[in-house]
Amino acid sequence: MRRFINILRGNMSVIGLVLLMTVSFCYAMFQGGFVSWFIFYSFLPFSVYALILLFYPLHDFTVERKVNKRECQAGESVEIALTFTRENRLPLLFMVVEEEFPQEMEDRGLQRKIIIFPGFKRTFSMSYTLENLQRGEHSFQSIRFWIGDFFGLVEKEAIYSSPLKITVFPRYHELAYSDLDRVFNQGAVVSTKKTQREHSVVSGVREYQPGDQLSWINWKATARTSEIMTKEFEVQKNRDVFIMLEEKPSDLFEESIEMAASIAHAMLKKGMEIGYVSMGSRLIIPAAAGNKQKRKIFYRLAKEEPGVVNALNENVRKGILPANAAVIFIVSDLTLEKVDLLSAFRPNQGLMLCVKKQADLTDEERFSMSTAVSRGIKISFFEHGHLKFDRSEVMVK
Fold first, then answer.
1. What mean pLDDT is reported for the chain?
2. Pick the residue with more confidence: 133 or 355?
3. pTM of the model
4. CA distances (Å), 222 to each of 204, 228, 326, 368, in order?
5. CATH dotted code for 177-196+238-389
6. What distance in Å separates the CA atoms of residue 61 and residue 144, rounded to the nearest whole number?
7. Residues contacting residue 78 through CB under 8 Å, at least 6 positions apart
8. Which of 227, 242, 255, 391 lies deepest, with the highest CB count within 10 Å?
């Protein structure tokens, strides 16, 4: 009995359609006259169309999804186009298409339902734009659409699998040469070696850039080109730099991601070798240079999520990092736990970047800062609103 009821529920539209056709036909037969037959013949085309839709093969549709770019930066927009192809020209009154978004997009309240009117077309398409994408790796799986008749008596639905992955890399900002030089060569412990490069062998000349020293100017090339030209030095092997990112939940987590990306971009642009250490996970990206390394680091930063546990993997603590590597630890607040964590890298130069103004520090953070300075750890602050280093007092004196 229950099975029979389930069958009836699944075919209520068919039963209702047949019942309406039967009632209109019986009314015309018994009542007779022009009006009754006019009602029957007027309803007949709509009922026949609805019956045809009941047996319309939605599985014959071919759905193709195209995207203008599969990789972008946070805040950018991506345009997605859907193309539907079918084998026949049966007129379709309408089609409602719904893109099933990834869970993180649904949590933001994004919904994408679009109604189109195919008519007699065998191939038709639609497009929409995803604006202000957030950092992460977004996976699209399926497309849901349905068709219906004039009166809504019949609806047919189909779901097509069409995997698509869009990687949204974090934003990064161009940091000035003076900012990098201030961060790595000032503070409580002044480094005797430049972290960017050793200036010993001249390999050529280039245009002057803000921050270049006066002694680097090549006066002969300047006189010849009428533009200020500076010496270009060979990039020699220096200490590798590893970036660590705090992964505890914080209101400034995204700003910390942006800062890590900005530091990595600036250093790689200067020809340095940069590595990345993921807190809480077992991933260590060895130090290297070039655009390929930048892509590796940015791809990892795109996938980073806040975690409850903020402990560094034991393999890192046991000395996997090179002995001469410099460690940059990016945090959103200062605690003794983080100072102890960075103090574990005794052979390395410790540098802690804090994504908040120094004027906003609490008493506990000031005590942690003093402890870090006493242990030879340099600390720098930057304004999280503009990702600009605080020039008033960049390093702890």
1. 76
2. 133
3. 0.71
4. 13, 5, 36, 49
5. 3.40.50
6. 12
7. 67, 68, 69, 72, 129, 130, 133, 166
8. 242
To the nearest 10 degrees (0 to 180), the angle between helices 33-54 and 12-31 is 160
CA angle 47, 120, 58 (to 5 degrees): 70
* Structural tokens at position 221: 């090339």
Q: What is the pLDDT of residue 292?
A: 92
Distance in angstroms (rounded) separating the CA atoms of residues 338 and 149: 64
Q: What share of the chain is helix, strand, coil (3-state, %, to 5)?
A: 35, 30, 40
Angle at which helices 291-303 and 253-269 cross, to 10°:
170
For residues 348 and 30, give the distance between their C-alpha atoms in angstroms, rounded to a whole number. Answer: 99
CB 284, CB 278: distance < 8 Å? yes
DSSP secondary structure letter of residue 59: G
Helices (H) and strands (E) in the chain, counts: 11, 17
The DSSP element (H or E) to which 180 belongs, if any, is: helix 177-185
Dist. CA 308–CA 312, nearest whole Å: 12
What CATH superfamily is the domain 58-169? Answer: C2 domain (2.60.40.150)
The structural domains of the chain, with segments of one domain joined by +, span 2-46, 58-169, 177-196+238-389, 198-234
Q: Residue 391 has which token pair?
A: 């020039």
